[in-house]
Write a structure and sequence with these properties.
341 residues; alpha+beta; Aminopeptidase; 2 domains; 9-stranded mixed beta sheet; 5-stranded antiparallel beta sheet; 9 helices; 14 strands
Length: 341
Amino acid sequence: MAAPPPTPRRATDPVAYRPGREADLDACGRIWKAGIEDYQARLNQPSMPDDLAPLRRLFAHLLSTDPERFWVATRGDELIGFASASVRDGLWFLAMLFVDPAAQGGGIGQALMDRAQAGRDVDPGGPAVPGPDEPLDTGIHTWGMCTDAVQPISNGLYARRGMVPRIPIWRLFGEVRRWDALPLPPASVDPVPFEAIVAQGGGGPDGTRRLADLVDGLDRAIVGSAHGRDHAWLRREGRAGFLLRDRGDGRPLGYAYGSSVGRLGPVAALDPDLSPVLIGAAVRGVPALGPVAMWVPGTSDRAMRMLLEAGLRFDGFPGLICWSTPGHPFERYAPISLAMV
């Protein structure tokens, strides 16, 4: 027997909030698409693709790692908004906050943001919501997100909460046409595939732990927080990592990811001058079947100039990195996407 259709919603119906569930993820994808297309249509931008399978896998990952920070808003039986955030080693990062365009303007986004920040339900008369000014007992030291530059209302909400837009971030996209623009590694360093690092560590769980320790150490030194669960997810998604090591003493100097479908990043380098070398190693080490794409912070000028010289171009409007502190890692770090550090 077919399931009954959802109860039609009315604008006067109360809005309820609850933790998200696996069964909500398709509806979250539809709201994400509707929200993006609502403002992009006003900018004469093309529609988003209909294939939301990669987005759903991202939702499922975030729900599995941070279920207490994945919240949905419903009116009647219909989902009308959602928010998702992650906490990694003291770094809170907002992945998504979307409200059905027909339901915007009623405080739903702020209510979802409260719950994503608190990691619990929020009562207006209850405990305070933690944030950059008052982290309370959360252990969170940094709060951030990437947002669209063309969303002034949302960006104002984030800034009022202490997550101030600080840096543009651009999507670079296109075919590599000038391979000589991608620098080869100097003789002093060696890009090593992650699989080789695992094998050198004895293979199996021991080798995997050895790789995780090296990557976590770089993340803590560069970003200020490790995010091993996201690295594991990236590899399950088919991205291949490369660790840059000093040929003399074997010290790890950075890492980068490439993929056969052209997605590059994240890229982390102790010395920002090494970012182009790392990106070149990832592009050469995992030949793409078509164009490549990467999110590049405006402060990562070496990587940006190199990719433009290689033939990529700016694609669409920039995002904004909102960060709770003036100090940030984005001269030496390019994130996974706008949804994950």
